[in-house]
Amino acid sequence: MRDTILAIVIVINVLCGVLVWFIPDLGNYILLTIASAFTLLAIYDAFIQKKHSLMRAFPIVARLRWFFEEEREKIQQYFIEDDLNGTPINREKRSIVYQRAKKEIETIPFGTQHNLYEKGYEFVKHSIFPTDHHNVGGEEVEFGSDKCTQKYKSSIINISAMSFGSLSKNAIMALNQGAKMGGFAHNTGEGGVSPYHLQGGDLIFQVGTGYFGAGKTIEGKRYFDDEIFRENAVRPEVKMIEIKLSQGAKPGHGGILPAKKNTEEISKIRSVEPFTRVDSPPSHSAFSNFKEMIVFLQKVRELSNGKPIGIKFCVGNNEEIEEMIKAFTEAGNYPDFIAVDGGEGGTGSAPLEFTNYVGTPLLDGLSFVYKTLVKYNLKNQIKIIASGKAVDAFDIIKLKAMGADAIGMARSFMLSLGCIQARECNLDTCPVGVATQDEDLVEALVVEDKNIRVKNYHTKTIAAVKEVVSAMGKNSIEEVKAKDIFRRNKAGDITSLDQIYFN
Prior knowledge:
This protein is α/β, with parallel strands linked by helices and 503 residues long. Helices cover 41% and strands 14% of the residues.
């Protein structure tokens, strides 16, 4: 095949040379130049380069493989996938976010595309006597145990953790301004509180194992620092503090900020070297057991002047989680909330094995945490925030029914900013300016337009939740329980989530 390809390009090159000899006009010279370039490229591929055996065997033609491989995700999304088979978030769910963010028509014609008799299909049962959805309550939740002096009332839907660094400054500003307009909270992610977070929206200040915005580097190791933390924690915009133990995208593995995204500005905020990959440690240096954790949580509560303090983790070893909750009971001290991340989570960069195979899926982890808090009589003190690919009203209702008091949403709010699921978040090449630090790409995201879309998506989703709850004949979102959500099993029978997860 190599000889055939070389013969073809050489013959074409000769023919173009002959054409120029007899008709020496500009167009023919251009053709000859192009043909000569292809001939030289074919010779380079076949005889000079030694890195790619495919190119040596199929000069020029093999380069198409790299082109299609590079564009495979886009070709898949635009020409191949249908409304239901796109991953990680399918077209149907992405569309509902876009429609609600833009206040476009969000109804669908001609019936459902879902197979209602397929294993895993989930639904709620409606009532013959629906309530008035305008009067459905339960869209807010108050955080703060009896150990907290600055309780905080928030929406049941909030922006989950995404840091400045992972996202662009324009994306962060749009999210925070949207949160302010919509009256809900914005989690900073572990990258610290940046100027772009301070747009007036309520903040959940996340402190990760790297202690960015809450610590400093000593001999190459990150340590929590009381004064640095307090400076951010007492800001009026900061309403709650979240201590991240692990996350759904890469549980048991520290956060990753690719070198390309670690700009001068971001490195100053995080107190690290610019343009280097920043790996957060997998565990905290401030504590190494549950007794020390409880002491640390109390210190953080006091440094923040009594604001709600929580911990975030993806459920791993169930015995460890139960031991931790038991330790809270025995100490008579506990966090004000627990954020449960599902193994299906993940907006940032993570190793493939951790993304695919480490961590408990959200419904299993959430139900276990809820049952354990009830077992140790702490559920009335500790609120639960659940996060793991929630997008539409049914997702919210299901997680609420499973024991969540509030829902953290990351990728869905990225979609409301205009994310097209290009899946280039870790490459600094996000084409819509959401997950990149490339200035030209960042400028494409217009804050004054996207902040309204963030607010719209939140408002319309809350309204959709109320409509579904009213169709179920209930007066409050809080009334929805696991016995009200149903799933078809392998045998074709219908079973409630209460029977699956709580019996």
